[in-house]
Amino acid sequence: MTDIDWTGGHNDSPSSAQLRSAVRAFAETAVLEPARRYDAAGVFHADIYDALRKSPFPAACFPPELGGTDGSTKALIVVLEELGRADISTAVTFATTVELAAGAVLLGGTPEQRATWIPPVIAGEQIASYAIAEQSSGSDVKALETVARRVGASWVLDGSKKYVTNVIPHLPGYVVIVAKLESAGRDAPLGAFVVPYNTPGLEVSAPHDKMSWRGTVLVDLVLRDCELPEDAYLGGGAVPWTSGVSRVFELGRTGMAAIALGSSERLLQESLDHAADRVQFGKSLDSFQSTRMRLAEMCTDIAAARLLVYRAAELRDELLMGRYGFEHGIDTPAQRTYSSLAHVAKLFTSEVTGRVADAAVQILGGKGLTEESDVGRFYRDQRMFRIGQGTTEIEKLIIARALLGSRVETAAQS
Ligand SMILES: Cc1cc2nc3c(=O)[nH]c(=O)nc-3n(C[C@H](O)[C@H](O)[C@H](O)COP(=O)(O)OP(=O)(O)OC[C@H]3O[C@@H](n4cnc5c(N)ncnc54)[C@H](O)[C@@H]3O)c2cc1C
Q: Which residue ranges form the domains of the chain, and what is each CATH number?
């Protein structure tokens, strides 16, 4: 038992505390052990996903008027932090579905589109994906080459997507595809389209093998004359997706920071437990000053990350006050403050998790690098936090742009 509550829970309202303890109990029983097997095999964590989709946690991430039970950013963050404490792949599958894909529908869709695409996610009937990256366009979003053209009453998409999480063609689900409208010019406006997995013209590659997030599915997509009905276009042109992309990324980055926070907490717990148990030179590791220094640094990093992540979530909730469309709070001082904090939180927390994972491996010694602990899996999985949804360098460029205003420009994932 420690004197510092770094494991979560401080400042929780009664409803957040209840949600946290429900997710934590679920994660410890339904996620932790199977996650080891799926990671070792490098295949989609089907049983975990099945339990998660039937749980009440998707509903917690959406507002009551759409069939959810909460819908605040705080609720989403609590769920992601607690899933991240057990398994990063599980948290990523969940986050991709609720906050990136269904989140894009929530933020940019019409009321009819929200009513069509969100309830199946809440009910666990559909998994969902969000595809923006391409071979030519990772950090550089303006280099996107997939184009959506208006043909009669339909939209026709042509192009390809590189690295898309969650596309599992034999499951019912959809992918939100970000494309240029009408031309691939660098400054062409962007649109987002809901594409069910079984749509003719959508080709799905075999899954990639990967070092991180081995329990998730990662594929490439090809879109060849992929014809969609008019209402597949999110927002129907009423909202500017060029700024909408940033709103989705801000939420995604806040969520990724929460997963990183939860995984850091697990790594510290594993380190504390091992340092207490392991005896060398007749003493437990936690009696050595170098171990104590390391543990104190991990704890301090995590405590600072926790404040940033939860402040970003609170700011977003204060800003939106229960509303969720792109039309709310665009380009206001409050929106810019939240946006900057989302980037700062993601940058800082992903760096913290890297330091914490490295320290945890050092404390566990050989055990940290073998199947005898979960630390090796977290060490591999956390590495992606500094790449996904804005690399460390891109996050720094965006934060600097906010600091310096019009004196700098980037064409990066923002
Ligand atoms: C496991 C996994 C899951 C993923 N899931 C999804 C998904 O579901 N949907 C999706 O759309 N994408 C997904 N991606 C793609 C991911 O978002 C991109 O990999 C990420 O945005 C970085 O793009 P990139 O890999 O092309 O790197 P690049 O953009 O090529 O960057 C490579 C390096 O160059 C640096 N760099 C680039 N530009 C600059 C600059 N202007 N200044 C300084 N440094 C720069 C970067 O910081 C980085 O260090 C996934 C990727 C992986 C590996």
A: 14-127 (1.10.540.10), 128-237 (2.40.110.10), 241-407 (1.20.140.10)
